[in-house]
Amino acid sequence: QERYAQEAKRWIKLVCSWDVNGTTSSTYHDDLGRWLLSSMSLAVDWIYDTLSDDELNEIRPVLLARGRELFRVQVQKLDQDPYNSHAVSSLTYLMRAALVLSDIPEAQQWLDFIARFFKDVYPPWGGDDGGWNEGINYWRFSMELALEAADMLREAGIADLYGKAWYRNTGYFQMYFQPSGVRYMNVFGDGSFGSGPGDSDYTHSIRLAAALNDPYLKWYAQKQSGSFSSPIFAYLFFYRYGDAYRALEQRLPEELPRSRAFYDVGWVAMHSNLANAADDVSLYFKSSPLGSASHSHGEQNSFTLTAWNTPLLISSGYYDYYGSPHHNQFTRQTRSKNTILVDGEGQQFNSIEAAGKISEFFTGPGYDFSVGQAAQAYSGRLDEFSREILYCVPDYFVVIDRLKAPKPVHYNWLLHTLAPPSLDEESQTLNLRHENVGLQVRFLQPTQLQSEITDRPLTSGDALTVFKANEVPPETAQPPQYHFAATTPEAATDEFFVTVLHPYRQSEPDLQFSGSYAGEAYQILATGTDRRDVTLLSLTDRATNLHGAGVAAQARMVSVSRQGGRLAKLLFKEGQEVTLADGGVLKTSHPVTMSIEYTSERVEMVAQIGHETSITLPMPQRPAHVLINGVNHVDYNWQSEQLTLLLPAGRAIVQVGL
Prior knowledge:
By secondary structure, this protein is an alpha+beta fold. It is built from eleven helices and 36 strands. The strands form six sheets. The chain has a 15-stranded antiparallel β-sheet that branches. It has an eight-stranded antiparallel β-sheet with strand order 9-10-11-12-21-16-15-14, with no helix packed on it. α6 (136-155) crosses α8. The termini are far apart. The model has no long low-confidence stretch (mean pLDDT 96).
């Protein structure tokens, strides 16, 4: 209707009357100037056919001046500093102006710069796996601009960014770290603990599903309870993608891996049920090659834990505002994370050099594991900090830490919670209960630790007392958080931690844990009613002879679970042979990492193999069929309750019907 165009003109002319070098300039305020430029560019584009030549001659010089300033003050500097988050977000704001002014050579230069950055560099905080190192909260904000940029460049025929690996995969970053039905975010980075998905999450997921024609992302979008975050986004979505989206059939995530690693940002999501947060036990693990700069924290080799939609272990501290005393001195510091301090000192914060790395990841039937390396983040205080997390799905996690320092130090092992924990010092067990979900934390190794618990954000301490002094609360009153430290009482260069995390819903934990050294291995036992698990860890960084509790293996790690006396599942890391007390034998012709899960109707196996490999594994009865990577396989041998297969190099998924 004409009246809307006239009202838009009135606002546009009002902005044109303001001093482009005054208090609304990008030089004066890095947000206000770009917001005005972007909004005015959109308005001009939408009512362009109603503007006279005189009106355009009044408007275009203002857009050009404001665009020139934004390019000079923020965008152009990305050539030297691609990690400036505000400059990166300014690309989309300036693109809108550049498209409106595309007949002007200077504006075309902006557009060429922007298109090149998006094609060759974007995103600086992620990569081909689809991650966003600043966290889900800033992913939300950035995706609005990233998707609009991709749509504009596609519509203008300049570039199709949806062909880039990051665009294809970033919807899965959202899916794995905000699974369907989740009530709380419980991840990493500024603002990444708190309320669950909202309208912006729905908007991003439905736009990605449509732009990529991705049936899994459509399923995820349809499971969201929100609506479009803006009527403009809704209008543009249905204008651009409505028919194609309606024709796209959604697909359940059953064919997707249960867990996933995003190596580009060093984030790992381990799930028991990706499709339903209410029935999911999930642990998120971070060791990032992009360090602790911008909206990230000093949290390499840290983790969070959520069980049945209840956050149990959190990345603590509040994000009252960027750079506040509480934010800088507590929230961004390692002392507020579920990781390790050295003599009370943490990782360097606000530094891209304080980096970590996910060096290993595996997901298969019954088990996940991941290994992070974080020594680099400690500014020379550590020579080694290797953290391995083994998930015995869905019941418990084993956290294995190998540390080495250039001089004797005390190590401080940290946890942070929303509910007050209690410590049984005799058994070295920490217990907590939050929203009717319990967590048992069993410290198996070292056998002697001294502990402390506080509900105050204390920002200073020493080698033996982490939370000692200098409380720096957030700007406004917030619910309490609880901070726990377990410290080695004697200084040493090398240390080895083994800790079990066991979430449970009943009144008491249903599994009990113990640990001991067994020759060249460390042995972990988990026992419950009709349940016995044995995990053996090599004490070196290579495969070795592992013996304990009825299991013998040549491997770096082996885990065997028996339920009701029968073999239920087995994990085998970089090994070639496992022998069980009942005579069952697993042999491979080359080192393999694999897991197997047995039920009464089928056997499922996933193997990661460097070479074509022959595998012989326990098989209680003759197979009805064997599928390898979805293809029926007839070339196998079964005799004496043993099945022999030849598997191709790479990742092999084997399904055996019984």
